[in-house]
Amino acid sequence: MNMNELNEVEMRIWNMWKGSFKQIFGRVVKEMSEYTGLSEGDFGVLDRLVQFGNGKLRQQELAESMGWDKSRLSHHLTRMEKRGLVLRKPLDTDRGVQVIITSAGKSALDDALPIVSKAIRKHFLDLLTDQDIDSITKLAERTKKNASLSCKDPSP
Predict the structure, then answer these.
(1) What phi and psi values does residue 154 have, to the nearest 5 degrees?
(2) Distance between CA 106 and CA 47 in Å, rounded?
(3) Closest CA relative to residue 39, chosen from 24, 48, 28
(4) What is the CA radius of gyration of the chain?
(5) Are 118 and 30 in contact (CB under 8 A)?
(6) For 87, how many CA atoms within 13 A lie in the half-sphere containing its CB?
(7) Is the Cβ–Cβ distance between 98 and 60 less than 8 Å?
(8) Which one of 26, 30, 103, 124 is least enclosed by Cβ atoms within 10 Å?
(9) Distance (Å, rounded) from C-alpha 109 to C-alpha 88?
(10) pLDDT tens by residue, 12-64
(11) Sheet strands side by side (includes 86-90)
(12) In angstroms, rounded to a whole number, what is the distance separating the alpha carbons of residues 74 and 66?
């Protein structure tokens, strides 16, 4: 078999993995959005500002942490600014921009966190055994390690 092709079993495993993740993630995002009005992107921005920057981050660092290009993040931040969730300030020391969570943004995040936690528990964690958790942890560590080693490899 050509190493550049997947056999039927390998393709089925890959599709099951992708489908399962998308389904769980979609349910979590749907519940969060229904109860809070935040989108997946809104939550990602607010959560990263608090987790990685104690409430503020350079816009470039935020874009990198989300895997978004500068343009996508800039447009999203404009919408979030209009809703009062964040504000942007030019940095005095260079040409960068700092993104800052507002009190309304912090409140929205605080309201969303228990809903997200409950949804993750309901749609994922409660379905797992201790053995499942151990297996998933090992798989995640192995694939993350492999991904970081091959990030210079341009192949998909």
Answers:
(1) -75, -5
(2) 9
(3) 28
(4) 19
(5) no
(6) 7
(7) no
(8) 103
(9) 18
(10) 999 999 999 999 999 999 999 999 999 999 999 999 999 998 999 999 999 99
(11) 56-58, 97-101, 86-90
(12) 12
Q: Torsions phi, psi of 69, nearest 5? A: -80, 165
Q: What is the pLDDT of residues 67-109, one digit of tens each?
A: 999 999 999 999 999 999 999 999 887 788 999 999 999 999 9
For the chain, what percent of residues have pLDDT higher than 90? 82
Confidence of residue 146 (pLDDT cuts 50, 70, 90): confident
Neighbours of 42 (CB within 10 A): 23
Q: Which residues pair with 86 in a beta bridge?
A: 101
Distance CA 65, CA 84 (A): 22
Tell me the C-alpha to C-alpha distance, in Å, between residue 37 and each of 31, 68, 103, 111, 118. 10, 21, 16, 10, 16
Residue with structure tokens 């929205």?
Answer: 108
Q: What is 81-115 written as a DSSP string?
A: HHTTSEEEEE-SSSS-EEEEE-HHHHHHHHHHHHH
**DSSP run (H or E) holding 2:** none
